[in-house]
Amino acid sequence: MRKTLTEIANIVDGEVLGDGNVVITGLCGIKEAKNGDLSFVANPKYFILIEKTLASALLVPRDFTAIAKPVIRVDDPSVAFVKIAALFLEDNLLEHFKGIHPTAIIAPDAQMGKNVSVGPFAVIESKAQIGNNTIIYSGCYVGRKATIGKDCLIYPNVSMRERIQIGDRVIVHSGAVIGSDGFGFVNVKGVHQKIPQIGTVVIEDDVEIGANVTIDRARFDRTIIGRGTKIDNLVHIAHNVTIGEHCIIVAQAGISGSVAIEKNAVLAGQAGIAGHLTIGEGAIVAAQAGVTKSVPAFTMVSGYPAKPHDTAKKVNACVQRLPEYIKTINDLEKKLKSLEDKIDKCALTAVSGKSVKAAAKKSGLRKYSKKK
Amino acid sequence: MRKTLTEIANIVDGEVLGDGNVVITGLCGIKEAKNGDLSFVANPKYFILIEKTLASALLVPRDFTAIAKPVIRVDDPSVAFVKIAALFLEDNLLEHFKGIHPTAIIAPDAQMGKNVSVGPFAVIESKAQIGNNTIIYSGCYVGRKATIGKDCLIYPNVSMRERIQIGDRVIVHSGAVIGSDGFGFVNVKGVHQKIPQIGTVVIEDDVEIGANVTIDRARFDRTIIGRGTKIDNLVHIAHNVTIGEHCIIVAQAGISGSVAIEKNAVLAGQAGIAGHLTIGEGAIVAAQAGVTKSVPAFTMVSGYPAKPHDTAKKVNACVQRLPEYIKTINDLEKKLKSLEDKIDKCALTAVSGKSVKAAAKKSGLRKYSKKK
Amino acid sequence: MRKTLTEIANIVDGEVLGDGNVVITGLCGIKEAKNGDLSFVANPKYFILIEKTLASALLVPRDFTAIAKPVIRVDDPSVAFVKIAALFLEDNLLEHFKGIHPTAIIAPDAQMGKNVSVGPFAVIESKAQIGNNTIIYSGCYVGRKATIGKDCLIYPNVSMRERIQIGDRVIVHSGAVIGSDGFGFVNVKGVHQKIPQIGTVVIEDDVEIGANVTIDRARFDRTIIGRGTKIDNLVHIAHNVTIGEHCIIVAQAGISGSVAIEKNAVLAGQAGIAGHLTIGEGAIVAAQAGVTKSVPAFTMVSGYPAKPHDTAKKVNACVQRLPEYIKTINDLEKKLKSLEDKIDKCALTAVSGKSVKAAAKKSGLRKYSKKK
């Protein structure tokens, strides 16, 4: 697709600064952008990137003034960017199949909404419910009494076990498993006996679940993923976990049983949370952090065991300089030793100095003064 | 389901302490329990939790006496708990489908046991063997000459490659891959040439394998998972690994090639074991530990590189206090410097003190005394 | 299969040293080898293993002389080993099915090469292209306009999304997901809005992709896996990542968005790379390393945050000895204190020593001398 900057400005109710005839042929993040791309910068702290970017033009906030290169001033650059991105999809890049494939197996007592699409070899079990306009790709499994809301998009080979509940506008990527048994056993005389996992999983509206993610069902209750939360690939979410709204869980993070994650929290890649902890509202867990204690709201932790990020950074800085400090310690020991030797000598002489004075006092000097 | 405490006590041959008319409507772990729940506490060290728990009643050992709330005294609280949990399943919560679905493709020369169930779109290849009462869900793949024992439960979309062997009463969760090629190459003039992985995988009886777990086949021999071992989601087990009986491998742990894990060992979440090491019997590897040396039996290691847990904790405590220690070091340096100055002065005066004495000795004092 | 050492030597144009009648019944790595196995050692630094190995015979370089046990001298032991391994497959261990299964669903406008094999319940969407001799196992999904080269091997239940491109001789293991959406959102007034991921994935020739690996499509461009690169199980590769030729990515490693990994680099197990970094040519990232800065070519990093490996080892050695150093610091403090006390005394006496001298000077001694 090709559009001039002016054409694009009209679409997003924006104002061009610089050459409006620049032709845009693609969209890209400001760091990866190439010539011909339109990019955006919403946060003033990234304005410096504008000089470096190869993008031909940028979406910027209304109050942006510099003219290093052609820009479109808009109320919200990122919103405008998403709006324009949609245009570049007009050639059906994101088109999905329509209708129910004859090979799909749908239980007679499943409740199918209007305009549902089901791909080849998908299986929808007894008493399952699928909402309007939801698309279920080939090879997916929807278990007995499972419910999926409307306008959902389920990619190929997703396994959704019995009784799990998925809200509206949820996207689930290939290979994800929702509702597998929680990892619960009691050790009876050295043998691990399975505790039946008879709870379920609740995925609220507008959640996105990455490829090959696993979300275990609760033991007796519900594992909950809050509204608008986005989960990256290969994340593990154990039984009885509750995640609040609008959280971000990055790839390969692992969340142990019964953890509570409050709204707007962020878990970076490969982070791990021990069981029964709470990650407070808006808290950030750094990549690979190993969290062994609950994390207060609006704080950031990192490292293993996870500590407040500033402390962790300070400690780590010290650790990196440890070899030189250890040299210092060894020097100190040497110096101290030699001082101790000096001191002993000094003390000795001091003592003899004393005796002289004593001797002097005893006779001579005093007596003499009497002679006066 | 609703039962009074007395009714439940009769089922598990237990003795009620407190109000036997309390109505139990659910089961739960002691920490997550709510009003109406029955929970259990087997280990005296958790008795303190009884005051905090919201559970309406608890299963406790025979020798338990306190009556903070209604309890049922039994020989083994955890065993009794599992037994009661089964009751709460009477409404067929865990019911599975029956029979072989017409769309399943089963090779004519596959050996099917009695009462085997196979879901839609499952594939069972030539010369595969399936034991009595085993249930294989939709979309599963059972490769040529693979054998699965009796009373197994294989959830949807599991891939079991050719020649792998699975014992009896094994549970495999969705998306697991058993028998993928080991990761083995030889670098020939800068190109990684594949070493054919012609071994297999042996899963012994009563093993449970989590969702999206990967277990590679051995290069020439067998990758072995020992009897009763339980494996959580997203665990990676490389070629030629041997795991003993009744081990616990928690989510996202990774075990490199040819590692030997002895019986009753525990690997916590996201732990990693380097190649060719041995994890001794009953050893515990803490979460996220990076194990670079073999771990002796009945010891616990943590951290990276993994160290005995007590050492690691001690070291970590020191590390956390490093910033203050470094202050101390700097203070010591200053003090020492100023001491050195003092000392030098002191030494000087000491010397002059000496000279006076010498002068005194030389004439005055001695002479004078002679005058007497 | 059974062959004498002499028979095998002839196959690889090798020369027997020792008993050529030794019968070889299997192949194995030198550490795991058992009696009857043939193994190999290419690198002189592993020659010491020859005394320990249980292998009955070994492939060694031409210049090898010791005769601890029967050997075959060849130009390149590892190449010869792979060649012989092929022999041990003659009984069709690695045989695959042939032909297109009637249940496979192939779009009328998909372009199928010669001699392509497609298993049951596989789906090949509109305008997809499959090269000659490629084998696609059951339950695989090939999206619209996706292209797969020739001589590829795709194991069961692999999901390959629309428009992705796979080269020749590529192996993809079960459960892998290629072309899932990149994890990209813009936060608009507290809500994470999805940035359409309209790019794709390009897998070059001779790549191998492990079980349950996830490779995300680029946002607007291409995620690229370079020729000959081998990827182990459960690896995550985010959007816009570019990996060069002949890299090794070990199990459970995670690579964040827009990372560039140059040719011949190695990522060990569970390593994590933060976004937008560069891992230089031939660089090695140790297991579990958390890389927060770009890694120069031909260097090795380890630890979190990742540091040059030698530094990291040195620092870690210091850290492990920290408790004793802290004892030293405390000792130093005590000694210094006691020294300060000594000093003060010493200084005092030194002063009085001085006054005596002064007094002495003032009168006595001088006067007296005048008397002379």
Give an overview in words.
Three copies of one chain form a homotrimer. The first copy, chain A, is of the alpha/beta class. The first copy, chain A, folds into three domains: 3-92, MurE/MurF, N-terminal domain (Udp-n-acetylmuramoylalanyl-d-glutamate--2,6- Diaminopimelate Ligase, Chain: A, domain 1, 3-Layer(aba) Sandwich); 105-308, Hexapeptide repeat proteins (UDP N-Acetylglucosamine Acyltransferase, domain 1); 322-368. Helices cover 22% and strands 26% of the residues of chain A. Chain A is built from six helices and 39 strands. Chain A has an eleven-stranded mixed sheet, with helices on one face. A ten-stranded parallel sheet of chain A has the order 8-11-14-17-20-25-28-31-34-37, with no helix packed on it. Chain A has a nine-stranded parallel sheet with strand order 9-12-15-18-23-26-29-32-35, with no helix packed on it. The first copy, chain A, is flat and about 100 Å long. The model of chain A is unreliable at 362-372 (pLDDT under 50). Chains in contact: A-B, A-C, B-C.
